[in-house]
Amino acid sequence: MGYWGYRLLLTDAACRKAIPSEKDRKMFDDRGLYLFVRRSGSKLWRLKYRFAGKEKSLSIGPYPEVSISQARQARDRALQQLRDGIDPSAEKQSRKAQAVADALDSFEKVARAWHAAKATTLAPRYSAAVLSRLENNVFPALGQKPIRSITPPMVLAVIRKIEKRGAHDMAHRVRNHMSDVFVWAIASGLSENDPAAIIRKALVPTDPKLRPAMIKITGARKLLADIEALAGTHWSTLLASRLLALTAARPGVVRLAEKQEFEGLDGAAPIWRIPAEKMKLTRAQKRDISWEFVIPLSRQAAEVAKAAISESLACHASDGPSWLFPGTGAWKRPISDSTLSKLYRDAGFTGVHVPHGWRSTFSTIMNERAALEDQERDRAIIDLMLAHAQQGVEPIYNRALYLPRRRELAQDWADLLMKDAVAPQFLLPEYRPWRAKSGETGHERRARIRRPLAQKL
Questions:
Q1: Residue 281: its pLDDT value, please?
Q2: What is the DSSP string of 246-310?
Q3: What's the whole-model pTM score?
């Protein structure tokens, strides 16, 4: 205060000399402008004002980067906004949001920013699939358009192209991804609406999830024999198909099977110990080791695992992959998720039986058998063998409790299915007469060369 109670305006010298104290403090200038001096020593210009009956504060900028005269000019502009009925803080935030929007602007840039933010919460493979769907289906048509300019008809045109390919499920997935991008953009101040949400009911309905399966044992035997007689099929694909049929496990679990998961293959009680993280469980259950799933292996299933391990070692020796069924080309990776489906299509079973159908085949045939033999308890055990989702800890105890009976049922199923089937070693390259030497894959050729050397040793 000066003489007679008049407040003195701040000077540049006073601002420079202002030193921090034990507490943050305010040095007032005029009409709400003040210099906020933090305990740390930093100084910030702020404006104290009221809007809609509430006291608010506007950050103007740091001192000395923003001089006292510049701070007063900013204050005057803010006070003019107040006289015009505009909240200067809200206006500043709006300008910031617009600056971000101008930087991102196009749908592709926004979508990639959304994906980068989302990727940490997704499985790597699914994250890559989401981005690939946008890159292949959306970016060519809408990628360079400002996200605010995209309308529902534009989105629908993209989706209609996908539907014309007959990929109705993919059309719904892409629309969902686009909607997620727009919702993220709205929350980030980059857009005002979600045109992908508006068109949801205009899409062609998704195809029903058909998983056709052979439900008679004679048909199942012939199906497996026909598949295994298909010329030119790689040994890992054939053995994976057979293990899938014998265990009724999910195809994804079979293709990702690793050698170290198989125990006691030469003993009386061989098992396949599947880690919880590979099972169809909740995230919490996947992290809980007690939810690992143990499959008691029949004699025939153990023989398949032994044949796969032996062939892999013969092909790759000690540098071989851990996968039980290495890829047919890139052997350091497992067979792809489409390998078995393609095998069944190539064998002529489109619409008749799919790899996942072995679960229905096993369930139908074994449940009918249980009913005929008046073994009602077996029906619940068969369900346990399929690892259907169940809540609580009871299923964990039941799996262990019924392991002996599960082993008996697994052996019964294998004996039924494998009647008159060849041993698994006859699915390996040297026993398949239609495979000309010139048609060998690289690791089959190495295996053929290594075997005589190993025999000499």
A1: 46
A2: HH---HHHHHT-BGGGEE-TTSSS-EEEE-GGGSS--HHHHT-GGG-EEEEPPHHHHHHHHHHHH
A3: 0.53
